Amino acid sequence: MGLFDSISNLIHNALGGEAAQVAGPLMQSLEEQGVSGLGGLTAQFEQSGLGAHIASWTGGQGLPIDADTVQQVLGQPAVQAVAAKLGIDPQQASQLIAQHLPAITQHLAQNAPAPDDSAST
C-alpha cells in the first residue's frame, strides 16, 4: 500500500493530534471500500449531492458536515471500519470524521501532485 502509506504519513506529519489519528484509519478504510485518495473522496461527495462541501474544503473554506451526513456519504461499512481501527463505536467515529474531514481533505488537496504536468510530454 505505497500510496496509502505516503498519504497517511503526509497527513499525520502535517495535521498532528486527533486529526492525524483519524486520518490514517479513515483513508485506509475508504481505500478498502474502493474509494482511493482525494479523487475517490470527491466522487463520493459529488454522487451524494455534496460536491460543494468537498470543493469548500479543498479551497480552504470549510462548510460544516455532521455525523449523519458522514454515514450517508461514506457508507456504514467505511464508518464501522474506522471505528474498529480506532476502538470506538461507529457514532463516535462518524463524529470524529465529521470534525476532521475538512482539514484532512484540505491537506490532501494542498499536497496533491499537479495534474498532467509531465503526462503529455
Descriptive tags:
74% helix, mainly alpha, globular, 7 helices, 121 residues, Arc Repressor Mutant, subunit A, disordered C terminus
Description of the structure:
By secondary structure, the chain is mainly α. It has a single domain (2-110), classed as YidB-like (Arc Repressor Mutant, subunit A, Orthogonal Bundle). Helices cover 74% and strands 0% of the residues. It contains seven helices and no strands. The chain has helices at 2-15, 17-32, 37-47, 51-58, 67-74, 76-86, 90-110. α3 packs antiparallel against α4 (51-58). The longest helix is centred in the last third of the chain and has 21 residues, at 90-110. The radius of gyration is 14 Å and the shape is globular. The N and C termini lie far apart (28 Å). Mean pLDDT is 80; it is low at 117-121.
Structure summarized in a few sentences:
This protein is mainly alpha-helical. 74% of the residues lie in helices and 0% in strands.
